[in-house]
Amino acid sequence: MSLFRTKDIAAIVRQTEGGKTNLKRDLGAWDLTMLGLGAIIGTGIFVLTGTGTLTAGPALVLSFVLAGIACALAALCYAEFAAMVPASGSVYTYTYATLGEFLAWIIGWDLVLEYMFAVSAVSVGWSGYFQSLLAGFEIYLPEVLTAAPGAKDGVITFFNLPAFLIVFLVTFLLVRGITESKRVNNIMVAIKVLVVLLFIAVGVGYVKPDNWQPFAPFGWEGITTAAALVFFAYVGFDAVAAAAEETRNPQKDLPKGILWSLGICTVLYVVVTLIMTGIVPFMDFKKDMSHPVSLALKYAGQDWFAGMVDLGAILGMTTVLLVMLYGQTRIFFAMSRDGLLPKSFSTVHEKYKTPYGSTWACGLIAGLVGGLIPLDNLAQLVNIGTLFAFSLVSVGVLVLRKTRPDLPRPFKVPFVPVVPLLSVAFCLYLMLQLYAFTWMAFLIWLAIGVVVYFTYSRKHSKLNQQQQS
User: Domains in the chain, start-ordered, CATH in brackets?
Assistant: First the structure.
């Protein structure tokens, strides 16, 4: 039964209210919304829309709606927990308080797939856009430093240097402090949202409704398969919950930040997808799957603006890197503070008030993975990890409503148990649309996590030490 020992929620809250390890509280609802937009708007809208269109056709807009519904249901469950347990660690901390230590460890290990590997994947996409921008100025890097080994057919490559360097710079910024990171993120988010809005304003005049026919050429199967793929476009809103201990009024501001950012992004995704597929016949996205938004503008004869979109994509991916790496470091911080990871991961810098140990460790690992490993299937692996996390959060709401109905809940999920059950159903349905290889890799990753737990984490758990004393 020690596997299912839970942390007292009141003790978790007290742990965040005093002591020398307090993180700096400097975020409000607006900052959290911008943090969410920073995490969400990036690879999904600038890259995956092209791939998704080839799978679903113009009906990709329904794929985004389907994925958005799954996220919205999970977001409501996140919001209840985030307001009730305003501590670092996101779903890991929530699971520890409801379902027990072992499942908390599993979900924390699972979140490495969502955050750290997502950083690696996005860094590779960032590198591609950055090299394309440099090529416009006739600046070229040595071929061996442009991609991971084996990433380019017929070309010898050793290391993706731009991918590593951007993660290194983002890591340095996060170590400097949440205030500095917040300012940079807010500026870049404002610019990339402006670029998206300009695309909508410019592109809407070139839409040809005939391009929307046939609307769903691959039927419902194509729509759901694309939904499982473009779900990656929503990954990151849950990183807002990881900012609990750095939020001035977490009970009120965390639910606002989570739900506002998700709602804004869903609307933008739907509108951009409609315009893109209205400008370009969907099968023509094969010509440039990596730059679908730019391709739409070239079809519209707006080559001058295509370059601006490339710049917006670079800024968009930079903010994704910033927020996703931020979320991962705070989860490592919480797990280390509980004794499940080495103490160095929860060491807070005296001057900057940031967990610099976990930040540098996560940043260097993510940078090296992005520099050394081709990550063609990583989006699906990140998706299955995220959907699994969302499912556990939804189950956690049901468990806690039954076992601790007395706890104060500043924000409540409406229509319980319907909403949490629908959240689980949607997440499991999307998980089943993913490839068998993805499931195999996911299960292997979880098996490695189980080994780590029983060889290190279980013995070093502070909750275990308290019970033994």
Answer: 2-462 (1.20.1740.10)
CA distance 29 to 227: 29
Burial class (CB in 10 A: 0-12, 13-18, 19+), 207: middle
Give the single-character DSSP code of 108. H
How many CB atoms sit inside 10 A of residue 143's CB? 12
Q: Is 142 left (phi over 0), alpha (psi -120 to 50) or beta?
A: beta
Q: 171 Cβ partners below 8 Å, 6+ apart?
A: 325, 359, 360, 362, 363, 364, 367
Q: Which of 373, 323, 403 is nearest to 97 (CA)?
A: 403
CA atoms within 13 A on the CB side of 123: 40
Beta-bridge mates of residue 146: 160
3-class SS of residue 160: strand
Rounded CA gap, 388 and 396, in Å? 12
Q: What is this structure's pTM?
A: 0.81
**Separation between Cα atoms, residue 261 and residue 256, nearest integer Å:** 8
160 phi and psi angles, rounded to 5 deg? -90, 90
Closest CA to 394 of 420, 413, 419: 420
**Number of alpha carbons in the 13 Å side-chain half-sphere of residue 63:** 37
- Name the DSSP letter for residue 89: T
- Please, are residues 44 and 269 in contact by the beta-carbon 8 Å criterion? yes
Residue 17 has pLDDT above 60, yes or no: no
Give the integer Cα–Cα distance in Å for 131 and 20. Answer: 44
Alpha helices in 212-302 (DSSP H): 219-230, 250-279, 292-299
Q: Average pLDDT, stretch 174-190? A: 75
Residue type, 69: I
Give the amino acid at 269: Y
The string of pLDDT tens digits covering residues 266-304 is 899 999 999 999 999 988 887 666 678 878 888 888 877
Separation between Cα atoms, residue 324 and residue 341, nearest integer Å? 20
239: its two tokens = 């990183």
Nearest Cα neighbor of 379 from 80, 42, 138 is 42
